[in-house]
Specification:
By secondary structure, this protein is mainly alpha-helical. The chain has a domain at about 40-120. Helix content is about 45%, strand content about 0%. Helix 2 (about 40-50) runs antiparallel to helix 5 (about 110-120). The chain starts with a helix and ends in a 6-residue tail after the last helix. The chain binds heme C. The site of heme C has 19 residues, from helix 4. Heme C binds near residues 54, 55 and 64.
Amino acid sequence: MKAFQILFVSVLLSLVLAVGCDYKFVKPDTGAPVDPEVPISFSDEIEPIWTAQSCTNCHNGSVTFSLEQGSAYQSLTNLNLLDLENPANSLIVKVPGGSAPHNNYNYVGNQKALIETWIEQGAEDN
Ligand code: HEC
């Protein structure tokens, strides 16, 4: 009987632990998957990302080039931050999350996928 209780408690404990550990790895909602067939708007969907991710703290045209609404497109094209042949290789996609000062600034959820898909769609100033 005692052995049974011990078994029961250990099974219960490992279940709790397993669920507990699992829980840590549950990712937050990362946003809707990006449908490549649906045209992405640069001004409505892409530009706001750089403000939301605080890129514009530095990329405001005074510390370094601007990623602010209204001037981001010019920076992307003038500085060659887009790779139309291989969107994932674009600097605007690759640099965030890399070495300092970008280690603390990155895209979240579907932001990177949105930018890549927008480039795939021709990187229009739309
Ligand atoms: C703490 C300041 C800071 C923040 C915040 C920051 N950057 Fe930068 N970034 C820099 C500096 C400094 C450089 C290098 C100087 C330059 O290229 O003008 C740079 C360079 C870059 C480059 C490469 C330009 C090139 O020609 O190689 C890209 C792309 C870039 N940043 C994108 C971003 C994005 C996107 C974010 C937000 C996710 C971001 N940065 C946030 C400071 C910052």
